[in-house]
Amino acid sequence: MRTHIEPPTVSVVICCYTMARWDRLLDVIGSVRAQTVVPHEVFVVVDHNQDLYKRLIATVDDVRLVESSGAQGLSGARNTGVGLCTSDVVAFLDDDAEAAPDWLERLITYYDDPDVLAVGGRVEPIWEAGRPSYFGEELDWIVGCSYRGMPKVASEVRNVIGANMSFRLEVLRQVGGFNLDLGRQGTKPLGCEETEICIRSRMGTPGSRIVYEPAALVHHHVPAQRGTFRYMLARSWSEGISKAQVSQVVGHKRALGPERRYVRSVLPRAVVSGIYDWSRNRDRGGLGRAGAVVSVLAVTAAGYVRGRRLAHVSPLPGSTAPVDAAWREVQ
């Protein structure tokens, strides 16, 4: 006779830092209210912005509003939320990513398997000014979204996407939370904190799994500025820098395994497809997409090399000075 397993309780953590996303943030909170599975608790963590915190206090009364007690940045804000959670699972949403009504229901399904440490879902871009013709779906990771080449059905993966992810609370606490040296700091397009914590959570736990469930969907707003070629290259440079940081923490092989497969298989097909569209259909966007892929690959690789060099001269553990210097090089 099959034993009935109670579904896990889940907390939702939404981190925010700017008044510029006020309307988006209210929509995100509304999407959590509309879930088919009612969360145990919802935290909105304000990352060192007193004006935003005060406005939320005066406007929103059905979630727990807290100020980040950690270092400024996304990782510090997330750790603040984790420290307050009392549920089995913690799910994270960005402040500009609205969840589908069955988002939580889809995520928690996999936690009946004790080997599953984390579950993430699909992130679809909603382009404020329409998708630029040169911005192929293979590059949607640049705007924090799922990209062509990712699984189309539920699959085991190395890491989840930051805008749509969940972890067992005990796992987050065992590994000490998100690395404060990684992740977005204000408007700097840094990242890879979710990659690093996923790798770290699996180290020393053979047989553990991280699952990507594309049916667990969120819609991520992409402002017009993030569709520009300038932003594309700046984010690529930052990705290279961030990957170099991660490789210093968890090792080169762990940090870059999926990236090698992506570069070997997904990107060449994207270049060929773009050139074909241009030559066969006179689609200028196709040539632009091919050129963008080559440019992004080159700039990301250069950022990685630069990050590896700077890592050897980091003045103190926890210092972001080398990263700041590298990021300024593209400004």
Strand content: 15-25%
Helix content: 40-55%
- Poorly predicted regions are 313-331
Strand count, sense and closure of the main sheet? 9 strands, mixed
Description of the structure:
Helix 8 (252-281) runs antiparallel to helix 9 (284-311). Strands 1, 2, 3, 4, 5, 6, 7, 8 and 9 form a nine-stranded mixed sheet that branches. The chain has ten helices and nine strands. It has helices at 22-33, 50-59, 74-84, 103-108, 169-174, 193-202, 229-250, 252-281, 284-311, 321-328; strands at 10-16, 41-46, 64-67, 89-94, 97-99, 116-127, 155-156, 164-168, 209-222. With 331 residues, it is an alpha/beta fold. The chain is globular. Residues 313-331 have low confidence and may be disordered.
Features:
alpha/beta, 331 residues, globular
Summarize the structure.
The chain is α/β, with parallel strands linked by helices and 331 residues long.
Give the SSE layout.
Blueprint: E1 10-16, H1 22-33, E2 41-46, H2 50-59, E3 64-67, H3 74-84, E4 89-94, E5 97-99, H4 103-108, E6 116-127, E7 155-156, E8 164-168, H5 169-174, H6 193-202, E9 209-222, H7 229-250, H8 252-281, H9 284-311, H10 321-328
Parallel strand pairs: 1-2, 1-4, 2-3, 6-9
Antiparallel strand pairs: 4-8, 5-9, 6-8, 7-9
